[in-house]
Amino acid sequence: MVLLAFDGVEAIEVLIGLETMAAEPACEFITDAEIAEVEKLHADMVQAHHDGELMTYFVLNQAIHQRLVDAARNPVLSRIYAAECARIRRYRYADNRKNERWQEAVREHEHILAALRQRAGAMLREILRQHHRSGWAVSRKVLEQELGAVGDAAAEPKRTRKARSASTA
Questions:
Q1: Which of 11, 75, 105, 143 has its CA 20 to 30 A from that of 134?
Q2: CB 1 within 8 A of CB 150
Q3: Which of 112, 105, 128 lies closest to 57, judged by CA?
Q4: How far apart are CA 64 and CA 19, in angstroms?
Q5: Does CATH number 1.20.120.530 belong to domain 8-168?
């Protein structure tokens, strides 16, 4: 059973696009009170990491990312992001089960928070892009191992497979 072929790569690319689209307006529109809320969520998330409470960590992590998107003040963007996150939640959870990635993600969140505090939209956009790509790379490996997905073709975007097929035909 190859679940990664469903559209996981495409879905994570959409999430990256949505979140990076939100970064600059979020930095423009976010209030000091909202930053304080994200800081509190972050502190709680770090504590959950310290305590080894993966599910609590994951829920807080997701809340932080949703707050960042919500800060862009685009309700359509927020709605689509929330729906897509819910749809692929279990696949995103997989990367944090690897302790090395979990520790790295906490460090990346420190950078996310710093960019948000500085209201550095372009910097936040790039940090978020790399944060999600790093997480997805680990998730994909974990899921391929656990679900028995075979080969890179299972996780490769359809457009890339089609392009390669066309060039070899």
A1: 75
A2: no
A3: 105
A4: 11
A5: yes
